[in-house]
Design brief:
Elements (H helix, E strand, L loop, with lengths): L16 H12 L19 H14 L3 E6 L10 H15 L1 H11 L10 H13 L8 E6 L4
Parallel strand pairs: 1-2
Helix pairs in contact: 1-2, 3-4, 3-5, 4-5
């Protein structure tokens, strides 16, 4: 319920175009000096989630490898960093068979258990498999509602 871009939550046509274009341009035109993290801040109810869903959908349409995870305060069990990472890894694996191969290899590692540190999970489930993805295909991970 937390994972995936929701077409029902995207911005209405021709709305929020300036901020959406700014974010998609940031992703499309990154270089070594571009910050690797984009944080969209704003008051509750200002459309941040809709912007996140819209950007994710547009980047998928541009053939970026996109994973999306929205935290939800009503689903306590899903709000763990470990669950978020595993869901993102699964989503990226579904989107790219090279990533999926790396992910399968990571799960063969017996040291990767539920008690493994988040840093190690990040390295094994995201960074390692992402290195197998075609370098021309950019990986984008969107986390929504981190404050939930």
């Amino acid at each position: 319920e937390d994972a995936g871009i929701d077409d029902n939550n995207i911005c209405l046509p021709d709305t929020r175009r300036e901020i959406i274009k700014g974010i998609t341009d940031w992703v499309k035109h990154k270089n070594d000096n571009t910050p690797r993290t984009y944080i969209l801040c704003g008051e509750a109810g200002t459309g941040k989630s809709s912007i996140a869903h819209t950007v994710g959908k547009e980047l998928q349409e541009l053939q970026f490898l996109v994973a999306f995870f929205a935290f939800n305060r009503s689903l306590l069990e899903s709000r763990t960093p470990s669950n978020a990472l595993r869901t993102v890894a699964y989503s990226l694996g579904v989107g790219d068979h090279h990533f999926a191969d790396g992910l399968l290899q990571a799960f063969e590692d017996p040291s990767l258990s539920g008690s493994t540190s988040i840093q190690r999970q990040w390295e094994k489930l995201i960074v390692g498999p992402a290195q197998r993805v075609d370098p021309a295909k950019q990986v984008v991970i969107i986390f929504d509602a981190l404050d939930e």
